Structure formats: structure tokens, C-alpha cells
Amino acid sequence: MSNREKTVTYTTENTYLTQNELTPKTKNVWLVFHGIGYLSRYFVKYFNGLHPEENYILVPQAPSKYYLKNEYKYVGASWLTKENTATEVKNVLNYIDAVLEAENLPDDVNLILFGFSQGVSVATRWLASKKPRCKMVALYAGGIPNELTATDFEFLDQNATEIKIIYGDQDEYLTPDRLKGEKIKIETLFQGKADIITFKGGHEVKPEIIKNLI
Fold first, then answer.
1. 201 with 174: CB under 8 angstroms?
2. What are the counts of helices (DSSP H) followed by strands (DSSP E) for the chain?
3. DSSP tag of 158
4. What residue spans of the chain are helical by DSSP H?
5. Which pTM was predicted?
6. What percent of the chain has pLDDT over 90?
């Protein structure tokens, strides 16, 4: 008896969420990737403090949904796992492309790329793959995938794109060894141009930090 794992290609459908309206008054478009365990409609609340006329928020939805804890009551979602990662990355990037195609964003707005926790891995993979022109890249309490190299980010105009690295000084997922490794990675990938922002707290989103980014 032998087993063979095969693949199939098919069309799927997923939601995404927007906050505020995209108008001629819009200055910033935020492309936001939430962390594991969130749904986009709950994560977007952290951006409520931004000026609604000037900021348009796009929050894609991680595709793999599951029940949180063992209560079968609350639902969260995950972007990727270590299982079949290359294929899942490709699927997620195709989904993001579809979201942006549907939105048809104007060229004259500032694109702000934001990732929290697991969303950092998605944000940086999308950034490296699509090489968009960003006003800001904000990576909040998450790890950058090991397969990414400095070459992947050579396209960034360090004078035009702000790089913000944000984390809490009591983040339970950032052990001293991991933090040391991430700092070396950040220094290498972004040529020492990243601005590191720390706050007192753990693995949590601080709305006031988001508001102060701009």
C-alpha cells in the first residue's frame, strides 16, 4: 500500500474589510495584516483613532479559520503554518493581489504596510514579492521569515520609505535570544535604517502607537 499526496487548483472566495471611504481627501491607505487568532472585523478597531477622511484602512482576512480555545464559540484565523508553507504563501499572495485589484487604489496616496504578529510574516513576504512603493512599513511584534534576504529589499528607497519596528518590552514571544536574532536580521535587511519603537507591555496592540505613526 502506498500513499501519494497530489495537488489540485481551484477557485476560492474570501472576505476582506475596509474602514472609512476612499475619496479625493484620502491621504493614506493602510494595508493591514492581523495576527493569528483575529478576524479582520475585530482587528480593525485598533485603527479607529486615525483621521477618517485622510486614512482608508484595508484589512485582508486570513483564510484558515478555526474555533478559539475549546468552546466552539469564538472564531479566529491563521495565515500560514509550517505545513506546505510555499504553496500557502503563493495562495495568500494571490488573494492579496485580488483584494488590491478589486480596490483599484489611486497612485497618489501614501501606502502604509502594517503587520502585527503573524501578519508580519505575510506583510514582509508580500513586500519582497511585489516590491510596491510604500510610504511606511510598520512591523509590529512579529518575526521576519528566515528565507528573506537583503536582496529582497534592495528596491526600497530608504529616503522615501520609513521602516518602523514595534514591540513591547515584556512580549512573551520575544525571548532574549529571539530578540537578538531579529535585531540582527532587521539591521541586515534594512541597512540600519529601521526605527525601533518599544513600549511597556506585552504582545498587544497599542492604538496610540498606531495613531502616532503618522
1. no
2. 5, 9
3. T
4. 40-43, 85-103, 118-130, 176-189, 207-212
5. 0.95
6. 93
Nearest-angstrom CA–CA distance, 154 and 167 = 24
Q: Grid coordinates standing for 16?
A: 476582506
**Residues 119, 166 contacting (CB under 8 angstroms):** no
If DSSP codes are grouped into helix, strand and coil, which group holds residue 77? Answer: strand
Residues β-bridged to residue 31: 58, 113
Contact by Cβ (8 Å): 182, 80: no
pLDDT in tens, 132-173: 999 999 999 999 999 999 999 999 998 899 999 999 999 999
Provide the 3-class DSSP secondary structure of residue 14: coil
Residue 183 has a pLDDT of 93
Q: Are 202 and 170 in contact (CB under 8 A)?
A: yes
Specify whether the CB–CB gap between 213 and 136 falls below 8 A: yes
Measured CA to CA, the distance from residue 32 to residue 195 in angstroms comes to: 19
Long-range contacts of 66-70 (CB under 8 A, 24+ apart): 68/37
